[in-house]
Amino acid sequence: MSLSKSRATIGLAMIVRDEALIIERCLGSVLHLIDTWTIIDTGSQDNTIALIEETLAGIPGRVISKPWRDFSSNRNELLKVARPTADYLLLLDADMTVQVNEPEPFTQLTAPAYDILVEAGIRYRMPYLISSQVDCQYLGRTHEHLAIANNIMPTPLDSIAIHHIGDGGSKANKFQRDLNFLEADALSNPTDTRTMFYLAQTRENLGDRPGAIAAYRRRIELGGWEEEVFWSMYRSACILESSGDWPAAAQMFITAWEYRPNRLEPILQLARGYRESGAMMTALMWIERGRQIDFPSNDRLFVETWIYLWGFDLESAACMWWNGDHEGATVIWSRLLERTDLTESARAVVTSNLALSN
């Protein structure tokens, strides 16, 4: 496909199975963006295929039925059949929707791959828009990643964003399935940093705290990408705290922040932890330090956006209340309720606090 046209053609590329409850939401968000579509179905037992064909009628494309193998194998198969259909491939899962931030989001595409901002409670970037000409392949049987030839780094693109809602139809036994893949991969390649990182996360999600701590520690030892090392330190601290060892957790939160001082997540946890232990002045000290740090706009991995937007206001109000400044806390809580980006759970907490304060 030629890139000399005023706008590159966009081909939707997906893998689905049993997504009838949500597939129309995803497809509806891209109908006005795509020129073609290629979707591999790996064994749906519901009417996913019929809904796809109905929703995308009038746009050239096809559903291809293939057996499930693993994530990288099936995604590489998808790349192979989708490449001839468009200049660029938009890679989505069924539990995602696309938000358009500019009237013509794809008018200046020239890079081999683009990093798209993903909002999923936390914020991260992924190469979800790639040139059909770029030499790349997926690696890893689960938590797969796109490896681009010659170590080409994706270019950030902010004309669209992706909301990852996380309610896909193939989540049953996900963590145990991932664990089996990752432990096998770790045995065959014990120094692979990505495998160790997601092995730690999967063990944490399964409630295996000692196993998660051990894998996070190993990931820290392996070094490499600083954001992954930071997150391994941060999650280790969270696990230590949930296990009841606040002194060790506090030290690890400090270690994580010192390692990557542009990230606020450890600072907020330090403020909250010291407040809950009764050390109000120490908590307020950490809050004041956190307010001096800007949003880490260049970080790609797991940025907890709520912390940067209003997390310190929420924590500051709690400290004020328990320090006797009820009026100051009430002012902040009232201001928080005016925010449109406050989560439902935080809104419920703030509303309850205000009711109790009256």
What does this structure look like?
It is a single chain. The chain is an alpha/beta fold. Helices cover 46% and strands 18% of the residues. The longest helix has 18 residues, at 305-322. It folds into two domains: 10-164, Alpha-Beta Complex (Spore Coat Polysaccharide Biosynthesis Protein SpsA, Chain A); 260-357, no CATH class. Helix 7 (226-242) packs antiparallel against helix 8 (246-259). An eight-stranded mixed β-sheet has the order 3-2-1-4-7-6-10-5, with helices on both faces. A two-stranded antiparallel sheet has the order 8-9. It has 13 helices and ten strands. The termini are far apart.
Distance between the ends: 66 Å
Mean pLDDT: 94
Report the CATH C-level class of the largest domain: Alpha Beta
Give the low-confidence spans: none
Question: And the CATH topology of the largest domain?
Answer: Spore Coat Polysaccharide Biosynthesis Protein SpsA, Chain A
Number of helices: 13
How is the main sheet built? 8 strands, mixed
| Strand order in the sheet with the most strands | 3-2-1-4-7-6-10-5
> Which band does the percent of strand residues land in?
15-25%
Structural class comes to alpha/beta
What is the CATH homology-level superfamily of the largest domain?
Spore Coat Polysaccharide Biosynthesis Protein SpsA, Chain A
Q: How many structural domains? A: 2
**Tertiary shape:** globular
